[in-house]
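Q: Structure tokens for this one, please.
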Amino acid sequence: MWVAFRLGERGDSRSVDALVLSLDDSDRDVRGRAAAALIRLGQPAVARLREVLKRVEAPANLYAAAILGYLGTEADVAALERFAENSDVQLAQTAQESVRLIKELKSKVPDPVGYRAAGLTMGR
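A: Here is the predicted structure, written as tokens:
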């Protein structure tokens, strides 16, 4: 596990699979360190986290939902919203918070070219 964590800290995407598997570890500290490393890795981890959210039970899906709050996009909102009504209160709250984070981040994305200020939209 520590090797995967160190690779995650260094940004080595080869560690994604090992780190994702660690989200289901019985040790809470291992799960937390794996989650932190996946957040540091960023986009290379997103596809695997989406798979976990679809197929895996707690605790891995709880951590995947939380991480996607930081790394996910609007494309992840529907999947996360399905968990927002889950009977597992912690998972439901985490999914709701992740949806909020994704939407908040999207609203704060800078408009470097000034399209919105000029009243223009992309593709016109």
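A few notes: The domain at 2-105 is CATH 1.25.10.10 (Leucine-rich Repeat Variant). DSSP finds seven helices and no strands in the chain.
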